[in-house]
Amino acid sequence: MNVSRKEFQIERTPQELQEYMASVNHFVEHDPELVKLARLKKEPYKTFDEELRPFSAFCSWKYRNRTDVTCSLLSENSAGDALVQDHSTGKDHLIEITWPMNGKKAIKEGQQLNEKGMTDGECWDFENNIPLREIVNRVLSIAQKKLTRDYRTKKGMSTLLFVFSEWRYYDDDNPKDQAVLNELVQKLKLNHFKVDNVVVLLVQSNKFIEVKTSNVVSSLQGKYKR
């Protein structure tokens, strides 16, 4: 199976992209050596996991089963990370994907899984949301860097997609955790990003929080046949 950056740049409808994601997941999961590479964040699996996966989730959420739009990652030197093309209107939707994470910790855990099948234990209590705040601060730090770039385009609209992995540290039933997440959203709202939309994706729950929305509405009419 072809798993490469070039393959990620092929235009697919949201449904086709979902199907491709599922095929790659199945392909990797059934090859122990590929699983090890993916755990270590080796390319192209790093891009697949950190860019294509959240992008596919976004396309399915935003455009659902539409067949007149196509989704693809862009080349590394492009204005954004990904592009949705509306073939009914001729408009583009540029996506910048931002997933602030502790890369060293992720690779270390990948090494541990490859070597002994488990990672070091980590303990925290229900009342301690310090690890969650560290993730939030990481997102806000990256957000400051995004303020310097202009993602707006004359060809359509643009979205800044912040990816937030709540695994381990966020409990939707914990009011304190909810307060921290709300604090993140409110602080993001205070930033004047040069972009039409700002969205936060909660990875594990596959939920989207719209921080900023524009008045640009993509057409819901027409069918695109390839």
Question: In short, what is this structure?
Answer:
This protein is an alpha/beta fold and 226 residues long. 41% of the residues lie in helices and 17% in strands.
Report on the structure:
This protein has one domain (5-212). Helices cover 41% and strands 17% of the residues. The chain is built from seven helices and six strands. Helix 2 runs antiparallel to helix 4 (45-63) and helix 6 (130-146) runs parallel beside helix 7. It starts with a helix and ends in a 14-residue tail after the last strand. The model is unreliable at 216-226 (pLDDT under 50).
List the helices and strands and how they pair.
Blueprint: H1 5-8, H2 14-29, H3 32-39, H4 45-63, E1 69-73, E2 82-86, E3 91-98, H5 103-116, H6 130-146, E4 156-164, H7 175-189, E5 197-202, E6 207-212
Parallel strand pairs: 3-4, 4-5
Antiparallel strand pairs: 1-2, 2-3, 5-6
